[in-house]
Write a structure and sequence with these properties.
2 copies of one chain form a homodimer. Chain A has 229 residues and is α/β, with parallel strands linked by helices. Chain A folds into 2 domains: 6-17 and 97-226, Rossmann fold (3-Layer(aba) Sandwich), CATH 3.40.50.1000; 18-94, Putative phosphatase, domain 2 (DNA polymerase, domain 1, Orthogonal Bundle). Chain A is 44% helix and 14% strand. Chain A has helices spanning 18-28, 35-44, 46-55, 62-76, 83-91, 102-110, 123-133, 153-162, 177-185, 220-226, and strands at residues 6-9, 16-17, 97-98, 114-119, 139-142, 170-174, 189-193, 215-217. In chain A, the strands form 2 sheets. In chain A, strands 5-4-1-6-7-8 form a 6-stranded parallel β-sheet, with helices on both faces. In chain A, strands 2-3 form a two-stranded antiparallel sheet. In chain A, helix 1 (18-28) packs across helix 2 (35-44), helix 3 (46-55) packs across helix 4 and helix 6 runs parallel beside helix 10 (220-226). The first copy, chain A, is globular, with a radius of gyration of 17 Å. The two termini of chain A are 17 Å apart. In chain A, 45% of the residues are buried. Chain A binds chain B through residues 110, 114, 116, 122-124, 126-128, 130-131, 136, 138-140, 144-145, 162-165, and chain B through 110, 114, 116, 122-124, 126-128, 130-131, 136, 138-140, 144-145, 162-165.
Chain lengths: 229, 229
Amino acid sequence: MKPMRLLLFDVFGTVVDWRSSLIGTGEATGAEGDWPAIVDDWRRAYQPALAKAREDSTWRDLDAVQRDTLDDCLERHATSLTGEQREALVRGWRRLRPWPDSRDGLERLRSRYLTATLSNGHVALLADLLKFGDLRFDAVLSAQLAASYKPDPAVYLTALDLLECDPGDAGMVAAHAGDLRAAAALGLRPLFIRRPLEWGPDGPAEQPPDLDGLLVAGTLTALADTLGC
Amino acid sequence: MKPMRLLLFDVFGTVVDWRSSLIGTGEATGAEGDWPAIVDDWRRAYQPALAKAREDSTWRDLDAVQRDTLDDCLERHATSLTGEQREALVRGWRRLRPWPDSRDGLERLRSRYLTATLSNGHVALLADLLKFGDLRFDAVLSAQLAASYKPDPAVYLTALDLLECDPGDAGMVAAHAGDLRAAAALGLRPLFIRRPLEWGPDGPAEQPPDLDGLLVAGTLTALADTLGC
């Protein structure tokens, strides 16, 4: 196995816990609603909305896409919010709590590898989110810099280009099989992190994809252990 | 004075000491040469080369531009290097030592402001350089993301756009009057750092520009003091 030089990280779900954080944000608005159900439904609308956004001629950032999906979702749940409450939820994506192992794991991985985010969140959102969680990466990269969304190959290739790294010298760290499949198809090494609580204690646990060279770890600190950091 | 939310930082000369670092790199190649004179001459070729690069139809990164200027400069100094020695000097820009106050100053400024580099160095170079010097910013932005070079207004405007910040809510931190003049013309607040040793103990000390709202500090820690960080 060729040694890696760069690790790219998915963020939502892999590094931070969107679900419990957003349920808290919803409850804190004071609006009546089944917040766990609303948040799960909103998050389920995420992938289809991004798939649609990839086709648009004008790139729109995640806030814009998620305002639309939130409105649809609130309507389905017969929940109405003021403009301010709605904006608090959209901005809530900048205040998602890191998983307990994230800060330490990232710090250890950074000691040996160049590390960068590679998220569908835009740069401004990511900068705020990392600051909120005190999470340190060597670079903050986003699908925005390719004016697209994962799993478009252009997103991964733009990040590799910006960091002058061949795909074979890089790994993609994610809790999602689709992200890893797209990265592996380009030659990046797939590193799967188990996040069984991503969809809550009763939610489904995502299974690792069947990919050559796959490495599976239960946490980012366990990944650091495995990689000798 | 409106409070700022974002501080953008020039890097070469403002945060790191290119001159003594590159003289050391030159000497370490083992090649005979008047390294202080070569390094100063190379650095003097930087602005004119970037001005020319801004006009080119294809954007080239700083490594490419600096390979050309280094070759010219070595010829003028009748110094010949192997390909490997030449590359060590170009790569030397990724191993420039921070000024003694930089790490602490940046950390304090980051406690109150969103901070980002805004350098003519490309993202890969900056990521390596910040890692080498253990320097932390909230985002690593570069003229590369505008496919141009400072002082092109597009460079500053692209950074503000990526961080969703109005010019009036941002400051530009630099040891160079030209950088601050370009930023101030767009509405950013100019924050001048005195780096009298940038061109060595006998070199000229750059004077702060005459700009409204200018703030002058002797170091990044002094800037943090002044801004109450």
